[in-house]
Amino acid sequence: MTDPSKSSFLSGALPSYKNPPVNEVVCGMRFQVPDKLRIPHIGFLWDKLRADYPIIQHAQPITSVKGGIWLDEATGLPLPRVWFINKSDDQLVQFQLDRFYFNWRRRQNNYPRYDYVIRNFESVLNTIVNFFGEFELGELKPIEYELSYINHIPKGQGWNTINDLPGIFLDFVWKQTKARFLTNPEKVAWQTEFPLPEKKGHLIVNLKQSIRTEDKVPLFVSN
């Protein structure tokens, strides 16, 4: 595998917004399952990340492409997903048998922009590549990369009713004429998938409604 520290993901000028509604960014990789990786190895990985991510939590495993969860071949027990979290609770590394992610999460801080996220992802990637080499787990072989933005758009910021939705998402429109018996929708759940140029992957857009936990304000959530 090419040394990721020598091949930055940064390329070209990127748009920047004064007040982006980004609530969380997830940048990660799914890779071929290494035959030699065992649960105790995860502790050794945390030892390498612990200075920056001193808090550890278990999380429900993410299902495989086929819809199942990874099981230990010897015992039949499910293999965990582990979170390594920083002291500020705004960054974490997720790791399980077939993937890892770097997350930035909005707490009291502003979104630090893509450059910051991708550099932290690359730092974690380098650590995991070196970890695989040190413990002779084989080569880290990527299957796919993922970059997800989770945006929260609260009521009162660009919209007040669902009728305002086409003003936020220009491609989400519906025709309202006197000849139609249907009124405007009252709930929305929408997903669209676009192929990227040169078959470099897909852009998947999701939109749904939600309620912000801390103050019960209605939200549009897009990712």
From TrEMBL:
UniProt protein name: TIGR04255 family protein
Species of origin: Candidatus Brocadia sinica JPN1
Source superkingdom: Bacteria
InterPro entries xrefs: CHP04255
